[in-house]
Amino acid sequence: MADQSFQTLGEFIIDKQEDFLYSTGELSRLLSAIRLASKVVNRQVNKAGIANIIGKVGSSNIQGEEQQKLDVLANDIFIEALSQREVVCGIASEENDDFITVRTGPNAHLSKYVVLIDPLDGSSNIDVNVSVGTIFSIYRRVSEPGTPVILEDFLQKGVNQAAAGYVVYGSSTMIVYTTGNGVNGFTLDPSLGTYYLSHPSMKFPENGKIYSINEGNYIKFPQGVKDYLKYCQKEEDDRPYTARYIGSLVSDFHRNMIKGGIYIYPSTAQSPNGKLRLLYECNPMALLTEQAGGKCTDGFQRILEIEPTELHQRVPFFCGNTKMVEEAEEFMKNAQ
Ligand code: P6P
User: Fold this and answer.
1) Which of 4, 122, 165, 274 sits most deeply, having the most CB atoms within 10 A of its CB?
2) Which residue, judged by its Cα, is nearest atom 10 of ligand 1?
3) Three-state DSSP class for 105?
4) Ligand 1: which of 60, 67, 118, 249 to mutate, most ligand atoms within 8 Å of CB?
5) Which ligand 1 atom is nearest residue 118's CA?
6) How confident is the model at residue 12 (pLDDT cuts 50, 70, 90)?
């Protein structure tokens, strides 16, 4: 059991609310809704093997990816938790073709926040008991509170995020998030159902040795990525790098932020914009990266400055220690 002297996530959210002048407590309530939903999803993920919810539900999402039963369940859980508390006026999800206008209760349309979410990223790992995650991104709406939420409320540059974070359902379950004042990690004590501040002020180490990329796609990579990988693998006594790739963005990111590393999902011949989605995967991870002292680009430009045009658009993704990302960018530039 956690040492009771650790601050709980609930206490932390309330303490940090003071950081925001004129705060109404709405963002605090929103983060608390995410906290609750993560506990419910955690319980389902942990018993997936015996709860007959493993496997495919027979449908596909807009990405054309077969939806795992847990994808759909996690999506429903987060949408329910966010909608019932009237803390958001709209929700966009990887699992939904279009955004959702929250209509539960008389005041949802008065909320000033929208949430974009990947409810269960890496879910293909569920059947083989490998860690998965939830990724969330929170914006203030640009349309007038009280009016119906509109697409432009979601199509905002990542630099405008009010908050962003992830849940990693791993050997332990953690919530890691930022509201623009640094990155903090909270570990769930399942015996109490309480998250405790276990990783205050998370920062990428200055140097890193880990590169995370699916080398099975090597032949399809841009030349700059191929050149960078050869640099990482060059024969030298003290070969400086090691490869680690879980196939779950949240887990690969979390490890790289703690140990030092770079995660790359580049464009390929078949997928000129790569695989990861800008709004609910790349932007939240990019905000966390920069808040933790790292760098996040599409190989050339800052992810957080990309002007979104579509809800489910994809972008190439280079993310990690500033030094390692800049090394990779150099190879990309030289290969042009
Ligand atoms: P690949 C999971 O589907 C995901 O979006 C990320 O979590 C993960 O890093 C990546 O795709 C894995 O993709 O093509 O290497 O299987």
Assistant:
1) 165
2) 247
3) coil
4) 249
5) 5
6) very high
Give the dihedral of Cα atoms 243, 249, 252, 256; nearest 10 deg.
Answer: 110
Range of weakest confidence among 57-66, 107-116, 190-199? 57-66
Question: Regarding beta strands 295-297 and 317-320, do their DSSP bridges make them parallel or antiparallel, or are they unpaired?
Answer: antiparallel
Ligand 1: which residue has its CA nearest to atom 14?
Answer: 214
**Structural element, H or E, at residue 230:** helix 223-232
Instruction: Tell me how many degrees the CA angle 32-34-35 measures, rounded to the nearest 5.
Output: 60
| Cα separation, 31 vs 179, whole angstroms | 10
pLDDT for residue 1 is more than 60: no
Q: Is residue 96 very low, low, confident or very high in pLDDT (cuts 50, 70, 90)?
A: very high
Ligand 1 mean position, distance from CA 234 (Å) = 26
User: If residue 114 lies in a helix (H) or strand (E), which one and from where to where?
Assistant: strand 113-121
Query: Which residue type does 237 have?
Result: D
Domains and CATH numbers, the chain: 4-199 (3.30.540.10), 210-334 (3.40.190.80)
Q: Choose which residue among 275, 280, 314, 315 to substitute to test ligand 1 binding: the one with the highest number of ligand atoms within 8 A of its C-beta.
A: 275
**pLDDT single digits (tens) 222-264:** 999 999 999 999 877 666 799 999 999 999 999 999 999 999 9
Q: Give the Cα separation of 27 and 34 in Å (integer).
A: 11
Q: What is the whole-number distance in angstroms between the Cα of residue 262 and the centre of ligand 1?
A: 15
- DSSP, collapsed to helix, strand or coil, labels residue 328 as helix
From ligand 1's centre to the CA of 296, what distance in Å?
A: 17
Closest residue by Cα to atom 13, ligand 1, is 247
Residue nearest to atom 15 of ligand 1 (CA): 214
| CA of 47 relative to ligand 1 center, distance in Å | 23
Whole-angstrom distance, CA of residue 318 vs CA of residue 324: 9
Structure confidence at residue 6 (pLDDT): 86
The Å distance, Cα 248 to ligand 1 centre, comes to 6
